[in-house]
Amino acid sequence: MDQTHAKALEALQPFIHLANSTSATSPRFIANLITNATSNPQTYVFAELLESPTIQSLRSPDTPAEFQGYLTLLEIFAWGTWQEYQATPNLPKLSAEQALKLRLLSLLSLSATTKPLTYSALTTALSLPSTADLESLVTTAIYASLITARLSPATNPPTVNVTAVAPLRDVQPQSLPKMISLLTEWETRCGEVVADLEAEIARIKTDAAKHHAKEQSHQILLEEAVQRQAASPLEDAGVTAGPRSRGGKPGLNAGRRGAGSGGNKREADDFDEDDGFFEAGDGGAELGSRMDIDEGAGSRAGSSSRHSKRVLGRMS
């Protein structure tokens, strides 16, 4: 669409040069210049031509009445519509090329302001005799890159679905204060929205920091509880941490005293207790009965080593 606007400005430049030349002094010459500019198939913007002092000279009271309407006609081509042309008296009659151009420009304005864009509304606004003429006009606008649209004749009601409009309509000078007011209001609303967003972002960050601190506190309490739970069974069983072994792990000592090598000493004492038997050669010569007990019973069969034997006998 920007390329379309650039092409339209480029097409208008020859007419601007003619308007600024020294020969452009006659009202008839100016009227012919306006007619040629509005009839050219490539021209769609006219603000620069309107600003020319030569064109503005038609506002002079000395301008003949037959040429006074040409300035108003050029203003309608710049920002007006087909309906405005029909409603304004004493305007020059349009050629076929001018009529097509003004209808195309009016279609741009209607596409930007009217929703939905029905067939009936367009044929009335553009004074088209039939639906076929409307479809031909819309197709011409599409191929000229003035609009991006799709015809929907089968819908109820039939509509023209416009999705993009070329920025080719000039702005009426009287509408500038209203546009400035609307833009100022829009800027104020944008500032309020930005302030609300910043306040919401600050609130979310504060809540996130509080939640993080709460999670850290909960994690610390949980770790302390786990440590207390792990130490509780050992304390109930009377097990205390002993000195560290060579591997670096603490040893555990049973609660009762004397554990360790004391168990081996007791077993040795049990063997020395008098159980009614005596050893041979231990001061008893007479034996009521004697038997040899092989202390190596249960040893591996076929062992070449001999086990010591104890001769036990019951005292008579």
UniProtKB/TrEMBL annotation:
Chain intervals with Low complexity compositional bias: 296-305
Keywords in alphabetical order: Signalosome
Ranges where the record places region Disordered: 229-316
Domain of life: Eukaryota
Biased composition (Basic residues): 306-316
Pfam family name, one: CSN7_HB_subdom
Domain PCI: 1-165
PANTHER family (UniProt xref): COP9 SIGNALOSOME COMPLEX SUBUNIT 7, COP9 SIGNALOSOME COMPLEX SUBUNIT 7/DENDRITIC CELL PROTEIN GA17
Family from the record: Belongs to the CSN7/EIF3M family. CSN7 subfamily.
Name of the protein described by the UniProt record: PCI domain-containing protein
Species classification: Eukaryota, Fungi, Dikarya, Ascomycota, Pezizomycotina
